[in-house]
Structure formats: structure tokens, C-alpha cells
């Protein structure tokens, strides 16, 4: 059974930092691209960042570039999102996503989300 469990969210002041973790199980983690996606209150889903299967390539939304860093540890089947210089507009539920495309089929898994609130 597939599980993606996010942790590390919470309340932080503007300018502060948080590190989100997403622990994966039930699938071959090292073959999946992993992403973080967020949803702010009353808004749609926003892609934040993606890391490739071996961790050698990363991509970021312009809104977080230079402030957030995605990384992964395939031995621990965990993906991380280090968030720095946080702004109130970063307030959202952050979801972990894993995706793999194989022989024309897409495998896509989601976590339950973790709340990040940036407020003074």
C-alpha cells in the first residue's frame, strides 16, 4: 500500500524557515520524480518544485526560486523541502507528490498535506 506522509509544517514568522519532509513507502521511490505542490486558502493548486529520480535535477516555481530547496534521500525514501525567507503568501497546505511514467502509463501518488502558516 502506497503512503506519502508529510511532516514539518507549522506556524512561522515572516523571514523564518521550515523544513518539510515527505516519507514514502509502498512503491519504488528511487524511480519516481518527486514534487511539492501547495494550495493557499481559497486558491487552486500551485506547483512549487520537482526533483528527478536520482536527485541530479531540480526545478522551482519563480515564486519560490532562491528561497526554497528540494532534496531527496533515496536510501531513506524521503523528499525534503527546505523553505527560507518565508513570506505570508507562502501560507498554504503543502502536498508531496510522486510521479512515474512507464510504458505509456502514469503512476501518481499524493500525500495528505501539511499546513504551513507564515504570520507575525
Question: What key phrases describe this protein's structure?
Answer:
mainly beta; seven-stranded mixed sheet; 0% helix; four-stranded antiparallel sheet; 120 residues; globular
Low-confidence stretches: none
Tell me, rounded to a whole number, the average pLDDT: 97
Largest sheet, strands/sense/barrel: 7 strands, mixed
- Helicity, in percent? under 10%
Alpha-beta content class: mainly beta
Tell me what the structure shows.
By secondary structure, the chain is mainly β. The chain is 0% helix and 56% strand. It has no helices and eleven strands. It has strands at residues 3-7, 10-12, 18-25, 33-39, 45-51, 58-60, 68-73, 78-83, 92-102, 105-110, 114-118. The strands form two sheets. Strands 2, 4, 5, 6, 9, 10 and 11 form a seven-stranded mixed sheet that branches. It has a four-stranded antiparallel sheet with strand order 1-3-8-7, with no helix packed on it. Strand 5 and strand 6 form a beta hairpin.
Amino acid at each position: 500500500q502506497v503512503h506519502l506522509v508529510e511532516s514539518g509544517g507549522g506556524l512561522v514568522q515572516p523571514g523564518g524557515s521550515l523544513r518539510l519532509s515527505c516519507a514514502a513507502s509502498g512503491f519504488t521511490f528511487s524511480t519516481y520524480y518527486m514534487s511539492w505542490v501547495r494550495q493557499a486558502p481559497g486558491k487552486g493548486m500551485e506547483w512549487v518544485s520537482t526533483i528527478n529520480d536520482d536527485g541530479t535535477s531540480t526545478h522551482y516555481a519563480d515564486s519560490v526560486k532562491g528561497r526554497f530547496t528540494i532534496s531527496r534521500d533515496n536510501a531513506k525514501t524521503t523528499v525534503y523541502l527546505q523553505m527560507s525567507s518565508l513570506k505570508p503568501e507562502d501560507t498554504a497546505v503543502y502536498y508531496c507528490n510522486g510521479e512515474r511514467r512507464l510504458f505509456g502509463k502514469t503512476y501518481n501518488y499524493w500525500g495528505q498535506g501539511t499546513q504551513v502558516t507564515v504570520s507575525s
